Amino acid sequence: MLHYIIYSTLIDALLRRLMAIELTNIRFHYPAQPEQNILNIPHWSLASEERIFLHGPSGSGKSTLLSLLSGLLPPSDGQLNVLGQPLDKMSGRQRDRFRAAHIGYVFQQFNLVPYLSPVDNILLATRFAKRQSSIDLNEETQELLNALHIAKKEWYRPTRELSIGQQQRVAIARALINKPRLLMADEPTSSLDMKNRDAFMDLLMTIVADNNMTLLFVSHDLSLSSYFENVESLHDINQLGGSASC
């Protein structure tokens, strides 16, 4: 009996390591509306190094789900494991540190510091992750900006002076600079034209593959699903639906 318990414990631990994301009985509601769940997910998981396209219309709870998975919001109930760590048991400060070190997030609204340059916005992410500034980091930053077609003359201008499309590409570079184990993207191509969108997707998939990242890509644009083997609808995993802002 003891051997069975030890064996089962080891198997459970191994499975947790193989899962980048695992949700069990996750519910979320805003404190002011406890009777109105936005998310109700009995179980959902994403294996390490898997790339998934998760789609759903505006208001279906996509951005809320990403906020839970990145630790920006705590769940109202349930177990939330990301990269083997129980986010539902962490404090806000612990979740912030974990996110900076292990998760890249391309926000729909960019969240850049407007008075900093693209280079400084990207390097700021490395400081949050406690990566030491170096020539290599500067070279990596410049390589990303070149790959995302940000002209050199824009690198040291305040980001508020850049176009919306340029700001979005800077936000993408910032999410990629630390080569995170888990990369999450919330409608990351919404401000890009078709040429830059396709260039971004090609670059993203190459970086993800080269660095063995897990990718959770969320969008309502089903034309992008062709880049993914694994495509799921949030409607299929969220039993309740909801009215989150996406």
TrEMBL record:
This one is known as Antimicrobial peptide ABC transporter ATPase
- UniProt superkingdom: Bacteria
Alphabetized UniProt keyword annotations: ATP-binding, Nucleotide-binding
**SMART domains per record:** AAA
**Cross-referenced InterPro entries:** AAA+_ATPase (IPR003593), ABC_transporter-like_ATP-bd (IPR003439), ABC_transpr_LolD-like (IPR015854), P-loop_NTPase (IPR027417)
Query: Cellular component terms, GO, for this chain's entry?
Result: plasma membrane
Q: Which SUPFAM superfamilies match?
A: P-loop containing nucleoside triphosphate hydrolases
Q: Which PROSITE patterns match?
A: ABC_TRANSPORTER_2
The protein's matches in Gene3D superfamilies, at most eight in alphabetical order, are given as: P-loop containing nucleotide triphosphate hydrolases
Q: Which Pfam families does the protein's record reference?
A: ABC_tran
Show the GO MF annotations: ATP binding; ATP hydrolysis activity; transmembrane transporter activity
Q: Which organism is it from?
A: Cycloclasticus pugetii
Q: Where is the ABC transporter domain?
A: 21-240
